[in-house]
Design goal:
The protein is an alpha+beta fold and 136 residues long. Helix content is 50%, strand content 25%. The longest helix is centred in the last third of the chain and has 22 residues, at 113-134.
């Protein structure tokens, strides 16, 4: 099973991160959390581990309306929120990779029609955000 929506862009890493933030905002998502994996690995595991992972950030994106609907349908869905979006680029990569969790993953864990509706809406919005980034 594929659990991410993925695109590859020819943008430098920092520009890709900003493009992703902007595209998410245009789709009603805010970034609640940001985990800089490279910096964390450098601090905790050393420079070799940081260099091996390359530039890598996890953005915790949340659309409050969608989150509210998901939690109203099944409060346990909070364990799957926010929607993680990864922007990464290895040292030798010729493109930056952007990946978002596929909201259909939630549907695999729930039989609720309301969860399905939220997942469909979130998937449409995340696909649109990735398409906008790919269009840069």
């Amino acid at each position: 099973m594929t659990y991410t929506l993925t695109t590859h862009v020819q943008l430098p890493y920092a520009e890709a991160v900003e493009a992703v933030r902007s595209a998410l905002k245009d789709q009603g998502f805010g970034v609640l959390t940001e985990i800089d994996i490279r910096t964390t690995f450098a601090a905790k595991l050393g420079p070799d581990a940081a260099n091996a992972v390359g530039d890598y950030v996890i953005l915790g994106a949340c659309n409050p309306n969608l989150a509210s609907r998901a939690l109203a349908a099944e409060p346990e869905m909070g364990a799957l929120l926010p929607c993680n979006v990864v922007v990464r680029r290895g040292a030798d990569a010729d493109a930056t990779t952007v990946e978002a969790i596929d909201p259909q993953t939630m549907v695999q864990l729930s039989s609720s029609e309301r969860v399905r509706e939220v997942a469909d809406d979130a998937g449409t919005r995340l696909r649109a955000a990735l398409a906008a980034v790919a269009g840069h």
